[in-house]
Amino acid sequence: MSTNSEAAKIFREIAFILQILEDKKSEPNAIFKIRSYNRAADEIQNLSSNIGEIYKEEKLKGLLKIPSIGKAIGTKLEEYITTGKIHYYDELKEKLPIDINQFFGLEGIGPKTIKTLYDNIGIKNISDLEKAALEGKIRNIPGFSEKKEELILKKIQFFRKGGGRRLIGEVYPLVRRIEKRLSGNNGVKQAVVVGSFRRMKETIGDIDYLVSVISEKDGNNIIDYFVNMAEVKEVSGRGPSKAFVKLNNGIDADLLVVPEESFGAAMQYFTGSKEHGIAMRKIAISKGLRLNEWGVFDKQNQRVAGKTEEGVYKILGLEWIPPEMRENRGEIELAKMEKNGMEKEERSRLRQLIAYDDLKGDLQVHSNNTDGTMSIEEMALNARDKFELSYIAISDHTKSLRLANGLDEKQLLNQANTIAELNDKIKINNNNNKNKNFRILSSAEVNILKDGSLDISNNVLDKLDIVGAAIHSHFSLPIELQTARLINAAQNPSIDIIFHPTGRIINRREGYPVNISKLIEVANESNTILEIDAYYDRLDLKDEYIRMAVENNVKLVIDSDAHHPLHYAFLLFGIGQARRGWAKKYDILNTLSAIELLDNLK
Ligand code: DGT
Ligand code: CA
Ligand code: CA
Ligand code: ZN
Predict the structure, then answer these.
(1) CATH fold of the domain at 265-352
(2) Which of 235, 383, 210 is nearest to 294 (CA)?
(3) Which of 35, 89, 185, 365 has the most CB atoms around its CB within 10 Å?
(4) Do the strands 497-498 and 468-470 form a parallel or antiparallel pair, or are they unpaired?
(5) What is the best residue among 198, 252, 273, 274 to mutate for testing ligand 1's pocket, by most ligand atoms within 8 Å of CB?
(6) Is 292's C-beta closer than 6 angstroms to any atom of ligand 1?
(7) Superfamily (CATH) of domain 361-599
């Protein structure tokens, strides 16, 4: 069956090749075409249903219902689903025999650079590029320099470190879909995904499924089912109780089958992390027990726990620990039950960790007034009706960010007026009880300029409900200057939130250098909120920094950075990240109602 990620990949490649081949002057429409292919790729990637299944049910008509898919792209998608190929794509590939996919991961090495490198010295892939850079062959090409050559090498190294790990958001729908199908299989008692995915790591090396069955025959059946799934490209191995496969999108998936009485122990073992597991086993030994993936055993080799995960933790004297915290970074100490005198506040971290249904609002949402794809009203109604949020803040970009069509002072104030009118309009038909107080907040993602000043004046910002600021340029400034820019913004009385504070894009760019402890100190003093950007290629702040912020009483918010209503679904990854950083509900301000939130701003 065709997978969403494969189709998305092809469309992204088409966009990229068009960027290289189309001369923007002679082909003024190229830019729109390129954008359409990229948007289509994003949408397909993030769909919760499989394109093949959509097609089976509704044919082309179903495909055309996917946001951003028009007739031209829709028919190509149909061709891909029915024949496995796209003729147009093959033609483009013939014109440009470059391994485009390899270059996607390299931030800053765009289509134009690749074309120049191909035309001048025939570079077709990353190995060619690395070799040429090492041999000093790039510096002499017009437009390049020794410094640029060095930068290319650095980027290749950063990319290699990522080592083929997938972003969690990229594989999430697929992983859950398979998990659900495994659960529904005859003879299967329980099925869960474990490993780094269950721990909500930012990137996933491989996918690990665990299944419990009653009989050996059921075990055999489920393994048969697993290796024959439509998503499987090849079977790397299978035994009586396990199987290893490679999926169509290139990621590996493991399946392990255990008897019911071992399910909890196996869950504990294969959820990891390895370090957490090793620490757990030491505790078992200190209590005269033995812990492995089959259970907890006493000196007589009797199984004393193993059916449930809670049971395994309990017999070791521990409270159950949320998977996101299992990194052996102090969580076991926190979970020790017999420990006397432990601060209530500390203990409650395990139980009061922010939960996946705790968020009431989203404070970074973009509309089609700038680089979003939908109107403010569409973004609002989707948030209210499909995601059950009680408020969103429209935080469009500001004027100095020209690429995103940033708003100037006048446009921002106009937008705030439109929002006030929309709120009145929405109130009238807020028939849906649960979110009857739904509200749109006026906001902005104010651009921080090179010197740390803002591109919108405070008297305009003060007319908005809530304001965030962010860095979008001059990434290569040294750490002192970069930190000073952020501090300047944080100390501005009109700025409530620093959006995506380090600017990283996972596996693609490191972000700008920031002295994070200094920023946290200033955020605390100035009552500035730091954002966890839930868009899955950002997840910025990372877990360590969240923990630092929380320990220093800095308040956080979790935002989707939505440019399309479907992106609200990404809030999940931000919550996972917050849990990995030990944030409690209390630490995250958008768990409050809109009124309470606004009351808590500086
Ligand atoms: P990944 O796949 O690189 O994103 O990370 P994980 O954590 O999913 O690692 P994976 O798939 O190699 O193994 C799944 C879990 O199995 C791991 O989190 C802990 C457990 N595990 C695997 N190998 C070992 C080991 O050698 N010792 C211990 N204690 N546990 C292991
Ligand atoms: Ca794994
Ligand atoms: Ca694995
Ligand atoms: Zn931004």
Answers:
(1) Beta Polymerase; domain 3 (3.30.210)
(2) 210
(3) 365
(4) parallel
(5) 274
(6) no
(7) Metal-dependent hydrolases (3.20.20.140)
- pLDDT, residue 218, reads 96
Q: Two tokens at 342?
A: 């432990």
| Equal fold, 265-352 vs 361-599 | no
pLDDT tens digit string along 401-438?
887 789 999 999 999 999 999 999 888 666 665 677 89
- Which CATH superfamily includes the segment(s) 4-161? DNA polymerase beta, N-terminal domain-like (1.10.150.110)
CA–CA separation, 529 and 148 (whole Å): 37
Q: Output the average pLDDT for the chain.
A: 91
Rounded to whole angstroms, what are the CA distances from 125 to 230, 376, 445, 508?
30, 42, 37, 17
Give, for ligand 1, the residue of 161, 196, 245, 309 to mutate: max count of ligand atoms closer than 8 Å to Cβ: 196
Nearest CA owner, ligand 1 atom 3: 205
**Is the pLDDT assigned to residue 101 strictly greater than 80?**
no
Give me the CATH code for the 165-258 domain, please: 3.30.460.10
The model's pTM is: 0.82
What pLDDT sits at residue 437?
A: 86
Residue nearest to atom 9 of ligand 1 (CA): 195
In contact, 155 and 109? CB cutoff 8 Å: yes
Per residue in 269-306, pLDDT (tens digit) is 999 999 999 999 999 999 999 999 999 999 999 999 99
Largest CA distance in the chain: 82
The SS3 call for residue 442 is: strand
Residue 74: CB within 6 Å of ligand 1? Answer: no
Going from N- to C-terminal start, the domains of the chain cover: 4-161, 165-258, 265-352, 361-599
Cα–Cα distance for residue pair 30/39, rounded to 1 Å: 14
Question: Running DSSP on this structure, what letter comes out for residue 354?
Answer: P
328: left (phi over 0), alpha (psi -120 to 50) or beta: left
Rounded CA separation 279/330 (Å): 10
Beta strands in 124-248 (DSSP E): 166-167, 188-194, 203-204, 207-213, 232-238, 242-247
